[in-house]
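Our consortium's second objective concerns turning raw sequence data into structural hypotheses that experimental partners can test. To show how far this objective has progressed, the report includes one record in full. It was chosen at random from the queue rather than selected for favorable results. The single chain below, 398 residues long, was entered without modification.
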Amino acid sequence: MWVVLGIFMFMCLVLIHELGHFMVAKKNGVKVLEFGIGIPPKVCRLRTGKDGTEYTLNLLPLGGFVRLKGEDPKDEQDFNAKDSFIKAKLRRKIWILIAWVGMNLALARVIFTALFTMGTKPISILPENAFLSKQNSYLMPTVNFLRKQGFISWDLVSSPAKIETVSSDLLGQQIGLLSGDTILSINSDPVDVWNIWSVLKKYINQNISVLFTRGGKNIIAKTECPVDNCILGLTFFAGNIDLKPIKFPFFTSMRIALKEIRAETSLTFWALGTLWKDLLSFNGLRIKTSLGKLTGPAGAIKFGESLLSIGWRKLYLGFAGMISLALAIFNVIPIPALDGGRLLGVLIQGLGKLKPEKYFNVEWYINLIFFVALMALGVYILLKDLIHFRNVKIPFIS
C-alpha cells in the first residue's frame, strides 16, 4: 500500500510540474503535441483534444512529460511552423521553460502553509552544525532554533539514546534492536540522542559494535556499517522534553512557508555543493560515500513509508511539499536535458542571434547524450535503492 501511495505521490508531483509547461505553452501560442502520463513506451491513447493534443498513458509510472511542436529539428515542417516552440519569441520560450518553477513552488507553499496552520512536529531535529551553521528550517530544525522560537524549553544534549521506534530493513532492525532499548556506545564511543549520528558517521564502511541495555542487561550487537546504507533507522524518546506543536495563524503560516522554502533551498544547494566537492576530490572513499547518499523514488518512498508507519501522516504531507520543492531545484540546474539546461540553450541562441536550424540541431544531440547519462544514473540509483531498501535480488549486482 505504501509503495502504491508513494508512486501516486510522485506521479502527481511530476504531472503538476509538466502541467506548468502545458498551460503556459498553450497560453503563448505553442502547440502541445502530447501530454503523457507516465514514461514511454506508450500503452494507449486516452483521448485527442479539439486542438490536436494527444493525451496518452505510458508504461513506467514515474511521472509524465509534455511534447511541444517544433522540438525536433529533423521534422522540418513542425520545426518551421508558426505555432512551434522554436519559432516562439524569446520571452515566450523563457516563460514556457520556467513555468514548472512556479507550479512546484506554489504547491510547496500551499502544502507548508496548510501544515503550519494545522500544527506539526519536525520531521527531524538536527544537532547544531549538522549541515549549515545557520539552520532555520522548521521541518528540519536544530535544538537552538526551536528554543529561540519558543517551541522547546529543555536541554536535550544529555538525553539518553532510548529507542522509540525501529524502521524495517535498516541496521537497527538487522542487529535486533527493539523499542525501549537504550544505546550506550558505538565502538566504545559513548552516545546520546544528539551525538549518535556523528559517532556513527566515524565508522562508515567499517564494522561496528553497538552496546545497548535491555531489561537491565547490557547486550553487544555487531554488524557492518556499509558506505551506502549506514542508517540505523531509529527514533528516540527525548526524555521530559516539552516540544510544542509548530503552529501559526493562517496568514503567518503563509509567511513561514516562504521561509521554509528558502531554508530548504539553501540546504539543497549546500548538499549539491558538498556532493560536487566530493566527486572532484579524487578520494575513492569520499566519492563512494557521496554516491551512496544519493537516493531516488524508491528511497524516498521508503522514507515516506517510515513516516506513515509511525503515524506521522501530517509530516507525509510535508514530505510531499519537500519533494515538490526538490523537483523545482533539481530542474533549475543548467545541465542539458534538464529544463535549466534547455533554458540556457534558448538564451544562448536568442541573445547570440544564432540560426535556430543550426543551433538546435546541435543542441538536440547534446540533450540526447545527457538524457542517456541521466537515465543511466537514475537506473543506478534505482537499483541501489531496491537492493538496500527492498532487499530485491538483482543478478550480477551485490
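The partners drew two points from this record. The radius of gyration is 24 Å. The beta strands are 32-48, 54-68, 161-166, 182-186, 189-190, 206-214, 217-225, 234-236. Both points have been shared with the crystallography group to help prioritize constructs.
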